[in-house]
Amino acid sequence: MNKIKDIRAIEVLDSRGTPTLSVTVTLDNGVSASAMVPSGASTGAHEAVELRDQDPSRYFGKGVLKAITNVEEIILPALKGKNPLEQTKLDQLLIDLDGTPNKSKLGANAILGVSLAIARACALITKKELYSYIQELFKEILSFPMPMMNIINGGAHSDNTIDFQEFMIVPVGFSSMHDRIRVGSEVFHSLKKLLHEKKLSISVGDEGGFAPHLKSNEEAIEYILLAIEKAGYKPKEEVAIALDCAASFFFEDGLYLTQKKMGSPKKVNSLEYINYLVSLTEKFPIISIEDGLDENDWEGWQVLSNRLGKKVQLVGDDIFVTNPLFLQKGIDLNVANSILIKLNQIGTLTETLNTMKLAKENNYKTIISHRSGETEDTFIADLAVGTNAGQIKTGSLSRSERTSKYNRLLTIEQSSR
Length: 417
Ligand code: PGA
Ligand code: ZN
Known about the structure:
417 residues; 39% helix; 3-stranded antiparallel beta sheet; single chain; alpha/beta; 8-stranded mixed barrel; binds 2-phosphoglycolic acid; 14 strands; binds zinc ion; Enolase-like, domain 1
């Protein structure tokens, strides 16, 4: 039997230049594997806790040395000598070792890094690709995900004037990974040309999508539709639109602020905001809306789900935070029909897989997601393939922390031909 011999972590930088952990697990046969932990900006209130040092003399308080100490001084002694192939048991041990409901003692960043590095080490010792090791844990068929590619960034991910956080294209008319990614890239470049011609900024936001100063959410969608056509594709049939409103960002004192970032906010209530979302779906080929409403507006979510749930994919991110308790509440209340899956919202691989199982058993669609603060780690590409997740959201067609996931999917596709 292989045993865990050592676990070490170092501070590395994420795509925003903020520190995060890279964790390396070494087994007694000399095999070692690492994993890096991502970090969100528009985080849900009920996410597992990302432990930061709060020491203002380093990285403006954002260092992760405490989390590293937790890995090396608390987690290592507990896991040393254990069989790495027992992922479920080891993840439970990590959960128990922390002992809090939101992993605030050891830090979800410390715990997740260990959990993922163990899975990678196991793929190596079982001589499997990571996706097929995950498939063995999850007991599903393998499949390639439909990507939702974020080509205009707004909200908390840019300093432009757009309120919605993500405007994504979905290459629904294409079945291979390489065609989906090629089409995405062509539309991305066609949009770049259009924005440049209009003398709008072609700098990008946190997830590699353009972040021009536009007048409204509608204008962003209109530019994307034009870019799809200019690239030679049919909007709707070949390339559809998906949104992440990340509505908690513009929800204040029970009301939704329209045009918050334009500096001329108008306050509307939940029902009025739902009318607005419905009108967008009538006007544009929108097939998916994530976080259309605030993370605590369960009543609003019920109304929205009633009105749009049969026609549009309604994705719960901040409202579910990859947590089976919140997802179960959503299932019971008929809220949303789909869940965004982010490993670091819950903190271990096993819990993530359990949430996905619950979603699948209840016919909720699953979308594996990156965070706005990412690294070059490509774990989520394998996770999407190995769990038959169906969809992946991993940003724009630029910036290596985004394209590394697409490139991993292309590599998996090539090797499986
Ligand atoms: P975050 O954004 O990583 O900043 O939370 C991603 C999302 O909201 O889907
Ligand atoms: Zn989101």
